[in-house]
Structure formats: C-alpha cells, structure tokens
Amino acid sequence: YLPAARVANVLNDQGRAKGFVDTAGQLRPRVAEVLAMQAIVGKASDPKQAARTMQQAIDAAPEVPEYQYELGMIFGQMGAPVEAIDAFRKAVALDPDYVDAYFQLSKVQRDLQRPKEAKESLENAVRIDPKRSDAWVEMADLLGQQGDDAGSLHAYEKALKADPKNPVSICAMGITLVQRLGNDVKNLKRGIDVLESCVRLDPKRGEAWHVLGDAYNTVTPQTSKTKKEAVRCLQKYVDLSPDDPNALVVKDQIKEINGK
C-alpha cells in the first residue's frame, strides 16, 4: 500500500493516496515509514497535524534525514520559518551532503532577510552538486540583490553550464544583462542574444518578451530593423498579458516606436 500511496501522491491524486496510506497505517500503525507518508499526504489539508505525525516518524527513526527535511517543508508551508530552519539544519547534520535540504534552507533564510546565511547554504548546495542549476540561479539572484553584479553573472554562467536548456536560467541571465548591466553595450547585446534563446525555449514567458523589446528599443544605433524587432517583442508581451495593467503602457510604447 505504501508504494501505491507514493505513486498516487506524485500524480497528485490525493484521494487515492490517502486511501492507500490509511490502509498502510491500519496494518502498520507505528512504523516510521508509514507515519512519514501519512504526514506527506496529509500536509495539504492539515499541515499542523502533518507536522505532529512527521515528528512521530522522527521519534521512531531519528537517524533518517529525509524526515527532518519533510518536516521543514511542512513548517515552511505553515509559515513557520524558524521551525523550518531548525528542521533543515537537523537534516544536513544527519546527512552533510543533503543538497535539497541546503537549497530549501537557503530559501527560508532569504525570506528571513539573512543573506549571509543563505549564501553559505547555497555555497554548500553547489559544492555538493555543481550541476544544480536552480541553486546557481538562486545564488545569482541573491548576489544581484547585494549589488555584486559580477558575482551574479558568474553564477548565471554556472547555471547555464549546468543546464544549457533551462529557460529559467537563460531568461534570468538575459534579464540581468539587460536591466542591471545594460549600460555596457556588450552586455546589452549579449542580453538580447540570451533573451532570444529564452523565448525560443519558452515562448510564453511574457516578462522576457517585454525586456527583450525594451532592449531592442534601447540599442544604438536605432535602425528600422531594431524598431521592428522591438515592436515584435513588445506586441508578443501584450498578446500574452492583455489584462496586465502595464500592457496599456506597452501599447502606447509600440505606437510611439511605430511613429518614429
């Protein structure tokens, strides 16, 4: 029953998952593995009870780092960041190579405005798994917020190297090159190239189309081609986000470019 509950939970079939795990609980009511699965299945509907159940699993098998990790995820869902940090720290104490725990720990630390601690957690994550592109993207964003544009760009490069076809990494890097580093013409032009790759991989990413259109409208010298490209990208943004209040501003921007 427990494997069936896991599969149903992955498929987001909560009704069947609960049925399977309840049956497993009747057959093996005090087994840590069953208690942990009950908590995982039940966290969406009753996170407080899920936290209590996961703690029972931890009490039954304190050596299992995954249970501390899952408890941290439940606390995060409950809006209890201090408790989440404590659980994630216990997870990495049990398993110093637990990259997921370091990654989630960094996100909670950022939410609590602890950038130094978050950076240390991310450094541990990418040390353990240098191909962890989402951790590199998180690192890049964190460094960018701290004004370390060179470090941010380096982290984006690492993210792209780890996963060259990940639109999240590519789009974030392109936006950074244009918006934060675009005063340098080389960065602006490179940002355009990166964002073109981004929208090829993910054509529905509205923000990328918007930034790309602004970049084409900013690049010098302005030519009929760059104006045409700016209009193409900005119109794509409007088409994707017609209800966005900013779409009206962009429509006026398109008219202005066409009138130049």
Strands, helices and their partners?
Layout: H1 2-10, H2 14-27, H3 32-42, H4 47-60, H5 65-78, H6 81-94, H7 99-111, H8 115-128, H9 133-145, H10 149-162, H11 167-179, H12 185-201, H13 206-218, H14 224-240, H15 246-259
Helix pairs in contact: 1-2, 2-3, 3-4, 4-5, 5-6, 5-7, 6-7, 7-8, 8-9, 9-10, 9-11, 10-11, 11-12, 11-13, 12-13, 13-14, 14-15
Please give a structural write-up:
- By secondary structure, the chain is mainly alpha-helical.
- Helix content is 78%, strand content 0%.
- Helix 13 (206-218) packs antiparallel against helix 14 (224-240).
- The mean pLDDT is 91.
Instruction: Let me know the number of strands.
Output: 0
Major β-sheet annotation: none
Termini gap: 68 Å
Segments where pLDDT lies below 50 for 5+ residues? none
Q: Overall mean pLDDT score?
A: 91
> Please, what is the oligomeric state?
single chain
Radius of gyration, in Å, reads 23 Å
Q: What are the secondary-structure elements, in order, as H or E?
A: HHHHHHHHHHHHHHH
Q: Helical segment tally? A: 15
Share of helix among residues? over 70%
Class inferred from helices and paired strands: mainly alpha
Name the beta content range. under 5%
Shape: elongated
Features:
single chain; 260 residues; 15 helices; elongated
